[in-house]
Amino acid sequence: MTEPLLRLDHVTKRFRGLVATNDVSLAVPEGAICSLIGPNGAGKSTIFNLVTGYLPVSEGEIHFAGRRIDGLSTRAISHLGVARAFQIAKPFPDLSVEDNVRIGALFGREGPRDVERETEQAIALCGLEPLRDRQALGLTVGNLRRLELARAIAARPLLLLADEPCAGLNPSETDEVIEILRRIRERGITVLLVEHDMGAVMRVSDSIFVIDAGRKIAEGTPVEVAADPKVIAAYLGTPVED
Ligand SMILES: Nc1ncnc2c1ncn2[C@@H]1O[C@H](COP(=O)(O)OP(=O)(O)OP(=O)(O)O)[C@@H](O)[C@H]1O
Predict the structure, then answer these.
(1) Ligand 1 centroid to 18 CA: how many Å?
(2) Is residue 98 within 8 Å of residue 73, measured between CB atoms?
């Protein structure tokens, strides 16, 4: 079996008395779109913060692209090819969309880079051509989300951590984000998604990890997870229709 791109082995994160991530093991295969779902406070963002090195693990190991990365700095992990697209984008407000994406291309994974080509590709992939000269200030939530995804992928990551990219979007904007995520995967970037929009998760994911109170309680394809009684009890409440 080929080694997954990202692997968490028995990862625990404690904040004083609170166990935010409790002995979580999971593997994200290269080329997949995987999702982390679970109720508010389940520990999904904490997992992102551990993978990016923003928080140190309390126990366990994280491996990425064949290297152990827990204990490395956020900068070192970004250089290895992990990028995160935040739910609340914080672009440079006075700069254009294009310059904000270019800044993403100036950082990120180490190795040869062509900043202009990466900028152009990310703008095209996220459908931002008509907005390239617009100031980031004043963009709609949907366009800010696309800018945030473009900025992140311009950094040429191997793995994109996408933090609730569909939050607050209307159905057509959500469809656009799903299309963008699929195009990102087609470009060879593996995606790990945290998302509360279950319709979007079910449509876009190859596999899903379900987190509840810090623990992984289920994993599988969307169909498997939607039918899992533990998941329905903890999170979904009612079966999800495709
Ligand atoms: N820096 C921190 N210090 C103390 N407790 C924290 C910290 N970060 C998260 N927590 C706690 O850890 C638990 C998991 O939080 P986390 O943000 O990972 O959940 P989540 O699944 O991402 O929730 P949501 O869906 O609401 O974003 C919560 O109880 C939260 O209050």
Answers:
(1) 10
(2) no
> Distance (Å, rounded) from C-alpha 97 to C-alpha 125?
14
The pTM assigned to this predicted structure is: 0.94
CA distance 193 to 209: 10
Where b means 16+ CB within 10 Å and e means fewer, 98-121 reads bbbbbbbbeebbeeebeeeebbbb
Query: What is the DSSP track for 136-190?
Result: STT--HHHHHHHHHHHHHHT--SEEEEESTTTT--HHHHHHHHHHHHHHHHTT-E
pLDDT digits (tens, 9 = 90+) for 150-190: 999 999 999 999 999 999 999 999 999 999 999 999 999 99
C-beta of 13 in contact with ligand 1 (< 6 A) = no
**pLDDT tens digits along 177-232:** 999 999 999 999 999 999 999 999 999 999 999 999 999 999 999 999 999 988 88
Q: Between 138 and 63, whose confidence is greater?
A: 63
Best of 45, 193, 196 for a ligand 1 pocket test (most atoms within 8 Å of beta carbon):
45
48 C-beta closer than 6 A to ligand 1: no
- Predicted-complex ipTM score: 0.95
Q: Are 69 and 63 in contact (CB under 8 A)?
A: yes
Distance CA 159, CA 137 (A): 28
What would the DSSP string read from start to end of 64-121? ETTEE-TTS-HHHHHHHTEEEE-SS----TTSBHHHHHHHHHHSSS-S---HHHHHHH
* Nearest alpha-carbon partner for 180 in 116, 123, 114: 123
Specify which residues 8 forms β-bridges with. 26, 62
